[in-house]
Specification:
Layout (H helix, E strand, L loop, with lengths): L1 H6 L1 H25 L4 H21 L1 H9 L1 H31 L22 H8 L5 E6 L5 H20 L4 E6 L5 H7 L6 E6 L5 E4 L13 H11 L5 E7 L17 H9 L2 E7 H8 L13 E5 L7 H12 L3 E5 L6 H8 L3 E3 L4 E3 L3 E2 L2 E8 L17 E5 L4 E3 L16 E8 L4 E3 L14 E2 L3 E8 L18 E6 L15 H12 L3 H4 L15 H30 L1
Parallel strand pairs: 1-2, 5-6, 5-7, 7-8, 8-19
Antiparallel strand pairs: 1-3, 3-4, 9-14, 10-16, 11-12, 12-13, 15-18, 16-17, 18-19
Length: 566
């Protein structure tokens, strides 16, 4: 038996070498391409390694000559060089990883080459972290058993890690499974997940943050939701934004996908940390005419008029005028030819609203020329105003123009030479537009139609109404009123809120009105999708060249060098 084994030792060694190498290669291919069998593939690879080790022990003389012979020494030197290179690369990568995970790492360590900087925090979010008044802990309630949920959690974890890096030690987070730890979820008042409970460690103020799709564990959280939650925890008072009712305005309680419904606008403002509710001007009256109205807890940060259809009563006009005079902020969203009382209020600040819809033959949604498409590429948005700087496209289905009754030369001045009212056009129509007085016969009429471009959204800052007297604050500065007038209400309705940047237009306007300028620049980042479309032949070419070309080239080169050196 011993003689038989010795006689066939060479064949046995070759068999072990081939079978061990084949088992390892088969396991590796299985592990790479069939991830469901990863466990079995690892076992096959271990068996292959064990067979190769047995072969190495049996063939120890051959292995020794291969390592310590003349060619072996060259091979060992090459191996040492390769191992040294790998070691340097590993140490360098570990150092960069350690440096990037330190609090507030240097900017050069993390470079984001995506078009919209998807993996780095915006400057505004970093400013919020730097100005946090207390450390914050985030408890993330998420069930990650499903692969899609685990992937969404990984994206959220990466984002939270970036918040932690930039917080200078003031932000930390942990994952909590609400199914295994329901008491923890109940202690924060979390009733649906995924959710993030942001807790100020000093004040114990808590804010529950939900994702853009509440209750859906496959949707990751965004920078906007987390940053807004941090602002809530670090801000004592919530600003109140009231949608005015009583004149046929759109309802924020209506959740239908309709032009009459405004619930999505209200939800967007709630996500920006505003207390949102409905109010009538009669209810606002006692607050406005109180002895010290600005000290009243219910004095609104902003009022929103969403498409009023009925006129103001005389008492209501007085209440609204007084609210504006005291420095209140208002967002007016009108349809063409609003009631006369609103014309009067707008006129006090040098603005007027068109009585007919606008036609724009250069930028509209076919086949309706009254359905305007407002685009930055057409230079229709103000490039400098905070409201419109981040907006590239908005859709306005049925719009009136917003005119100005005063300009820089005719506007009254205060005693110090300051203009009483300053207007800035936010959006306009194109040159190929006009106010259409006869919708049944669309066409520009020189005698009755007004030629474009025409303003369709205007922002105004005023220290007093025209002909009014400015109010001085205790520090000597003047009370300032912010007004935004948009010639369309449908753009922010549930039907069109999600179209292009319509939602951002509404939210940015309110942010500017209440002077929360930092919120305007932390809207959700657009993920640029670049698709490579291939035919079947092109796809097969990419696949097979990727799998075979490099191995064949390297193997062929090795065979050629070996043949030349024989």
């Amino acid at each position: 038996m011993t003689d038989l084994l010795r006689a066939n030792a060479g064949a046995i060694r070759q068999f072990l070498l081939v079978s061990g190498g084949g088992a390892f290669a088969f396991g590796a291919v299985l592990w790479i391409f069939v991830r469901d069998l990863a466990g079995a593939a690892e076992i096959v690879m271990l068996i292959g390694v064990a067979i190769l080790l047995v072969d190495a022990v049996i063939s120890w003389r051959v292995v020794g000559r291969a390592l310590f012979g003349r060619r072996g020494r060259y091979g060992v030197n090459t191996l040492i060089i390769v191992l040294a290179f790998v070691a340097i690369a590993v140490v360098g990568n570990f150092f960069l990883w350690w440096l990037s995970n330190r609090p507030n790492p240097p900017g050069w360590v993390r470079i984001d080459t995506t078009a919209t900087k998807q993996f780095l925090l915006s400057d505004q979010a970093q400013a919020v972290l730097e100005n946090m008044s207390e450390p914050v802990r985030a408890s993330v309630f998420w069930v990650t058993t499903r692969p899609e949920a685990a992937a969404a959690w990984q994206r959220t974890s990466d984002l939270l890690s970036e918040f932690r890096r930039r917080s200078r030690g003031k932000f930390e987070f942990k994952l909590v499974d609400p199914e295994f730890e329901p008491n923890v979820a109940a202690s924060f008042g979390v009733t649906q997940h995924p959710a993030i409970a942001l807790e100020g460690l000093d004040s114990r103020r808590t804010q529950i943050v939900t994702s853009a799709a509440p209750g859906n564990p496959t949707v990751a959280f965004g920078e906007q939701e987390i940053t807004t939650g941090l602002l809530v925890v670090n801000r004592v008072k919530q600003k109140q934004v009231f949608f005015v009712t009583g004149h046929g305005e759109r309802e924020i309680t209506n959740r239908a996908d309709a032009r009459e419904a405004f619930s999505r606008s209200a939800d967007a403002l709630v996500r920006d940390n505003y207390a949102v509710a409905s109010i009538t001007l009669q209810e606002l009256g006692p607050v406005v005419f109180a002895d010290d109205p600005l000290a009243e807890a219910n004095f609104p940060a902003a009022l929103v008029f969403a498409g009023p259809e009925n006129d103001l009563l005389e008492g209501e006009k007085a209440i609204l005028a007084e609210y504006l005079r005291l420095g209140g902020s208002v967002l007016f969203m009108f349809e063409p030819d609003p009631p006369a009382g609103f014309h009067e209020i707008a006129g006090q600040y040098g603005l007027t609203i068109g009585r007919h819809g606008l036609v724009d033959t250069a930028s509209f949604v076919a086949p309706n020329p009254f359905f305007l498409q407002v685009k930055k590429s057409n230079q229709q948005f103000s490039p400098t105003h905070p409201i419109t700087t981040p907006i590239d496209v908005a859709y306005m289905p049925g719009t009136a123009f917003i005119g100005r009754t005063v300009n820089e030369e005719t506007v009254p001045l205060t005693e110090t030479g300051q203009p009483v009212v300053v207007h800035e056009v936010l959006a306009t129509t194109t040159l190929n537009s006009w106010e259409e007085s006869d919708p049944e016969n669309i066409g520009f009429d020189v005698g009755s139609d007004q030629q474009g471009p025409l303003p369709i959204a205007v922002a105004a800052q005023a220290v007093a109404p025209l002909g009014g007297v400015p109010i001085k604050k205790e520090d000597g500065s003047l009370v300032t009123t912010n007004i935004v007038v948009v010639g369309d209400a449908d753009f922010a309705s549930n039907s069109f809120f999600s179209s292009a940047k319509n939602g951002d237009m509404l939210a940015n306007s309110v942010n500017w009105l209440v002077r929360d300028y930092e919120l305007i620049s932390i809207r959700p980042k657009t993920k640029v999708f670049r698709e490579l479309v291939l035919t079947t032949r092109e796809r097969d070419f990419v696949r097979w060249t990727g799998w075979l070309l490099m191995p064949v080239l390297i193997g062929g080169t090795g065979v050629f060098v070996y043949w030349r050196r024989r």
